[in-house]
Amino acid sequence: MAHMHIKKKLICLTAFLLTACHPVSEKAVAPVVPEITTLLDSVVNQLYRDSVTVTRTMTINQQRSQQTLKWIDWKKELALFYRSDISNASTAARYEADTLDADSVRVLTFLATDSSLRTRKLQLFFKNDRLEKMYIRNAQSSWWSEMQEELYLFPEEGYSIRSNTSNRLFGHQQMLITGLFHVGKTQP
Q1: What is the pLDDT of residues 6-19, one digit of tens each?
Q2: What is the pTM of this model?
Q3: Is 19 contained in some domain?
């Protein structure tokens, strides 16, 4: 009788272990929302160290101009995205996070779950733990105006900033800035 009781306990314990102990999926541990200013500062500092010259093309409402710049105030150029609200402790919980890992590539995606947040999407693409691409989409809307801003940043190649704004008084304005990096040129 005692042998049968032990056998039942072993069967129950085995069943419990088989159903309760399973590997934790990657979705169970959400990635931590990164500090955008730290990531941007890292890229900006590298651009200054590499003495990057930029072929910058700006188009505002169909008017296009192009310049080759030996120096850019990157904090000013990227100011719209330095002000992204995704890194604020008070808003971090209002983003849905996802991670995709494949070979040496990792993609972190953060989507706003609250439409009142200015930063709607952040995607970071890493290869061998090095930032390869950053995408930020900001948007705001009110009865008076609407705004959308996008940044595509490739730390080794260039960047693109797209901004669309419209308001009841001034109408619609489109802006596109693209920059192609040329490494090794001397900055003043």
Answers
A1: 444 434 434 443 44
A2: 0.76
A3: no
Question: Which residues, other chains included, contact 139 with Cβ-Cβ below 8 Å and sequence gap of 6+?
Answer: 118, 120, 146, 147, 148, 149
Establish if 1 belongs to a structural domain. Answer: no
Which residue range(s) make up the domain with 119? 33-182
| 97, part of any domain | yes
Query: 53-76: buried (b, 16+ CB within 10 Å) or exposed (e) per residue?
Result: bbebeeeeeeeeeeeeeeebebee
Domain count, the chain: 1
- Which pairs count as long-range contacts for 78-82, CB under 8 Å and 24+ apart, including other chains? 78/40, 78/44, 78/151, 78/153, 78/161, 80/138, 80/149, 80/151, 80/161, 80/163, 81/36, 81/40, 81/136, 81/138, 81/149, 81/151, 82/36, 82/37, 82/40
CB atoms within 10 A of CB 134: 21
Quick one: CA torsion of 72, 78, 80, 81, rounded to 10 degrees?
Answer: -170
61-99 pLDDT, tens digit each: 889 999 999 988 998 999 888 887 777 777 778 889 899
Q: Report the C-alpha gap between 142 and 28 in whole angstroms.
A: 36
